[in-house]
Specification:
Its main location: cytoplasm. It is a single chain. It contains 19 helices and 25 strands. The chain is of the alpha/beta class and 586 residues long. The chain has three domains: 191 residues, Alpha-D-Glucose-1,6-Bisphosphate, subunit A, domain 3 (Alpha-D-Glucose-1,6-Bisphosphate, Chain A, domain 3), CATH 3.40.120.10; 116 residues, Alpha-D-Glucose-1,6-Bisphosphate, Chain A, domain 3 (3-Layer(aba) Sandwich); 136 residues, TATA-Binding Protein (2-Layer Sandwich), CATH 3.30.310. Strands 18, 19, 20, 21, 22, 23, 24 and 25 form an eight-stranded antiparallel β-sheet that branches. Helix 13 links the parallel strand 14 and strand 15. The chain starts with a helix and ends with a strand.
């Protein structure tokens, strides 16, 4: 019933544009553990009013089956600032249609009245003890995209088998229910609640449990620049600084207000490097700020840059900031907990493609480290299991600039990560140390960990499948590569098939998934490299790391070795020319 998408379809039919109609109607969007992520537009392969109604009807029926008290507890729905003029779709409209679907079935809905960071949704699920949460966002994807992210009652993103159960329920509930399109009905419903004021108060109260140096924060002369990259983060990071008694950061004026066109950046993704931070560097130079904090548009990720003594800016990788935050959060915990026995219940987590620096810190300091599959859905669910057993999960991170610094949110949170980084930097400044110097100190103490990650773009699923099939049948059927250029392969773990050469029974310990590609190679020189497909973008990603024991400080030699390993990986395993892969560009 949306006049805009309806007109698009009628126009395509009139033009007999079969190719475009095939793209719109050939394949329904797949509902996975990340929910939905696709371009806004007409047809069942896109995000639009109809597909949102169908998805929510399926999700509602699935929740009714799983929770006898759904009508008592209810769900929370949040949204970012994305909008798509030509199809009439927007995150706010999608959120209202989803709310209408639940309310029509007598389910209470806590719908945020305004844009909100993604982490506020899992926080609200836990805080108000709700059955589920939905966040309408496409995070840092291109402007035409949108998404539908789902959280379970434990406050973590859903994992299997919920994705399959919801997917099946969507298939069974495709015809819109009566009144499905009339979202105005919710405004007069007693089942509609607005959690905005409560959650804003409670969230900022809860993150203050991670504030350990209020006096230093009040006195610091350190200046910060913050950018929300045309997303939702501005107001919330300002409030977080206030909660920690830090002076508010300078906001990049051209980027502080939400704008679904993302006019000043090619990609609204701070992970893409210096291009996204150009305006931040200029403002920092003008105002004399040493540190830049950049959130992605839904404020669940954080990038950090620091001005070096040379005048250059260093953008920390996700692994480097993970090392710093891991060190800092453990140091703060240690200062608060003098009981030597307490450490046996302390945990930190990271994903299997992230740096193993936390493992090195854990080994030396005596706490537990666990790795999970890629993505915060795994770390959030594992953290909850451990917390339910009485353990303290201090920190979890992934190299894609995602950090969980506060147990009140079982997902990555760029708001708390920004203010905790600011407190860490302010504390270090009292010792005349920069973040870069502290990072070096961490590596000196726990061993150098250097990483290199990138990706190739490939829009053809057949080529991707062929590339991974070739690696599994490298020297004849069912044989993996024994070397990569001059680098000898000493171990293989394939989480698509479940094979792990290092295990006695050759079976991988981490869960396997046939629907996504992921192979990890261990090399005789101690290097590790993982190749995997992205769940939300047309990318084949790789991650590589070389670790040295404490005391080995020949950084340049290690970097050279890692560069050579990565070059060999690209040349022999990716074969970009043969497979017509497009390299990542700055």
């Amino acid at each position: 019933q949306n006049p805009k998408t309806s007109a698009i379809v009628k126009q395509l039919v009139a033009e007999r544009n079969v190719e475009e109609l095939q793209k719109c109607f050939g394949l329904r969007m797949e509902f996975g553990t990340a929910g939905l992520r696709a371009a806004m537009g007409a047809g069942i392969s896109h995000m639009n009013d109809l597909t949102i109604i169908q998805t929510t009807q399926g999700f509602c029926r699935y929740l009714e089956k799983n929770f006898s008290d759904l009508k008592k507890r209810g769900v929370v729905i949040g949204f970012d600032a994305r909008a798509h003029l030509s199809s009439g779709g927007s995150s706010k409209r999608f959120a209202r249609l989803a709310a209408n679907t639940f309310i029509s079935q007598g389910v209470p809905v806590y719908l945020f009245s305004d844009i909100t960071p993604t982490p506020f949704v899992p926080y609200t699920v836990t805080h108000l003890k709700l059955c589920a949460g939905i966040m309408v966002t496409a995070s840092h994807n291109p402007k035409q995209d949108n998404g539908y992210k789902v959280y379970w009652e434990n406050g973590a993103q859903i994992i299997s088998p919920h994705d399959k159960g919801i997917s099946q329920a969507i298939e069974e509930n495709q015809e819109p229910w009566p009144q499905a399109w009339d979202d105005k009905l919710i405004d007069s419903s007693v089942l509609l609640h607005d959690p905005y004021a409560t959650v804003n108060k409670e969230y900022f109260k809860d993150i203050q449990k991670q504030c350990f140096h209020r006096n230093i924060n009040k006195e610091t002369n350190l200046k910060f620049v913050h950018t929300s990259v045309h997303g939702v983060g501005h107001k919330f990071v300002q409030l977080a600084f206030e909660a920690f008694d830090l002076r508010p950061p300078f906001a990049v004026p051209e980027q502080k207000d939400p704008d679904p066109e993302f006019p000043t950046v090619k990609y609204p993704n701070p992970e893409e490097g210096k291009g996204v931070l150009t305006l931040s560097f200029a403002l920092a130079e003008k105002d004399g700020a040493k540190i830049i904090l950049a959130n992605d548009p839904d404020a669940d990720r954080l990038a950090v840059a620091e001005k070096q003594e040379s005048g250059e800016w260093k953008v920390f990788s996700g692994n480097e900031l993970g090392a710093l935050l891991g060190w800092w959060i453990f140091t703060c915990w240690k200062n608060q907990n003098r009981d030597a026995c307490a450490i046996k219940d302390v945990y930190m987590l990271s994903s299997t493609v992230s740096s193993k620096i936390l493992r090195a810190i854990a080994l030396k300091e005596g706490f537990h480290f666990e790795e999970t599959l890629t993505g915060f859905k795994w770390m959030g669910n594992r953290a909850k299991q451990l917390m339910d057993q009485g353990k303290a999960v201090l920190f979890a991170f992934e190299e894609a600039i995602g950090y969980m610094c506060c147990p009140a949110v079982l997902d990555k949170d760029g708001v708390s990560a920004a203010v905790i980084t600011a407190e860490m930097a302010s504390f270090l400044a009292t010792r005349n140390m920069s973040l870069s110097q502290q990072l070096k100190a961490v590596y000196d103490e726990y061993g150098l960990h250097i990483t290199k990650a990138s990706y190739f773009i490939c829009h053809d699923p057949k080529v991707i499948q062929q590339l991974f099939d070739n690696l599994r049948n490298y020297d004849g059927e069912n044989t993996y590569p024994k070397s990569c250029g001059r680098f000898k392969v000493s171990g293989i773990r394939d989480l698509t098939t479940g094979y792990d050469s290092s295990q006695p029974d050759q079976k991988a310990i981490l869960p396997t998934s046939k629907s996504s590609q992921m192979i990890t190679f261990t090399f005789a020189n101690g290097g590790v490299a993982t190749m995997r497909t992205s769940g939300t973008e047309p990318k084949i990603k790789y991650y590589s790391e070389l670790c040295a024991p404490p005391g080995n400080s020949d950084v340049e030699q290690l970097k050279k070795e890692l560069d050579e390993l990565v070059n060999a990986l690209e040349k022999h395993f990716f074969q970009p020319e043969k497979n017509n892969l497009q390299r990542k560009t700055e």
